[in-house]
Amino acid sequence: MNSTDTREVWLRGPLPDMPTLLQPVAHALLQAREELNALMADFPAELLYEKPSGLASPGFHLQHLTGVLDRLFTYARGEMLTDEQLKALKAEGHPTETTLGVPELVGLFNAQVDKALAQLRTTDEQTLTAVRGVGRAQIPSTVLGLLFHSAEHTMRHLGQLLVTVRVLTRTPLS
């Protein structure tokens, strides 16, 4: 895959060492990462937790994008969330004195995408229909359902982040 290729990731061909049935999930996560990095490259730190018209702040979206990937991939492995993951979930969108800045939040998202891709590469396609419980209530899903939803949810929040950033920076949508 050529990093200077301007086509959407899914049009660049199969990813090496990625299970065939999980290519769309990987493509969506890589596309989200490229778009998020470009969008946030020059974003002003002072606007990170602004909520124009009551919309979720860019800071929330950056934290949530990272956290939801971590949580959904945890469930896909058949594991329950840790206390640390639950604490991070409660902290999403709430700035504190130790709140990370834009580069750090983008870096955490990039690292989480890398972890997700590594997990996808080692996911046995024979397990994709295996039932997995979600949350304390153990709502039934499947490995594939969780992985697909991680990609869909990531793209949904990226779209919301895009609009919020454009409103805050008064940059027209292209």
TrEMBL record:
Domain of life, per lineage: Bacteria
N-terminal signal peptide: none
Alphabetical list of InterPro entries matching this protein: DinB-like (IPR024775), DinB/YfiT-like (IPR034660)
Domain DinB-like: 29-161
This protein's name: DinB-like domain-containing protein
